Amino acid sequence: MTNLAKDLTELSRKAGEPAADLTIQAEGNAAVFDRENSKFLVKASGVIMGNAKEDDWVWLELGSCVEILEDARKNGSSEKLTTALNEILASSKNSDGQVRKASIETLVHVVAFHAMEVDWSLHTHPTPVVALAASKDGAKHYSGTVFPDEAVMCGPVPLFLPFANPGLDLGLGVYLGVLEYQQKHGRNPGQIILGNHGLCTFGVGARDAYGATEIAVKAAKIRLGALSAGGISFVPNDAAEAIAFRPDEILRKRLLAREALNK
């Protein structure tokens, strides 16, 4: 098995720990991009994150998945494209050459690798995040950040997207949302909140992606607490922007990303 599969397994098991409350059953997935070979590893369908093994990760060519996304962006979602996507997912193989169908949410990671140019992508369903994302004012609750570390670790402006069915529709929704966010803010979102669904975080390594998830979950709990105490008071936008890109905070985030995942 590759070191990438080993690292993904460690990340998956940590995200799947019951105490973390990030995923249960076969919820969630993770992926890593092998930039030298333009392909990526993603969780096989039906695998429980907390029970993942090194042979539960399958390889896919990034280019073929990007073609599906680009076609959908230009021409809209269609049954033909959905069939083409399912054929790609169904033909994926693990490092031993065993055919295992890739996760239906694979395109979320494709957006991360292609449009955002990151190497690690983690998608989870934390209860407090989904509670907010399922509320009627979900977008409003994520219109800003609620404490400094959220701005630093997850970016000063979250990206909230409305619900879309997992598969091509979800992938296209995330793709269009990220492109619009980049156009507006000139950078990538650090956290993506999927309406009625879950959370996406990213990083230069497994620790980075998981750390962003930890902060995002804490921020969700703070939002819920603030709502119960009368309402959310966001960090002022200019202050969130300033602290997120302050040299000392950038250095701190870079140092944290180097820490081992089990710390």
UniProtKB/TrEMBL annotation:
Gene Ontology biological-process entries: pentose catabolic process
GO cellular component: cytosol
PANTHER family: 3-OXO-TETRONATE 4-PHOSPHATE DECARBOXYLASE-RELATED, FUCULOSE PHOSPHATE ALDOLASE
Class II aldolase/adducin N-terminal domain boundaries: 6-224
Keywords: Lyase, Metal-binding
Protein name, per record: Unannotated protein
SUPFAM superfamilies attached to this UniProt entry: AraD/HMP-PK domain-like
Entries under InterPro entries matching the protein: Aldolase_class_II_sugar_metab, Aldolase_II/adducin_N, Aldolase_II/adducin_N_sf
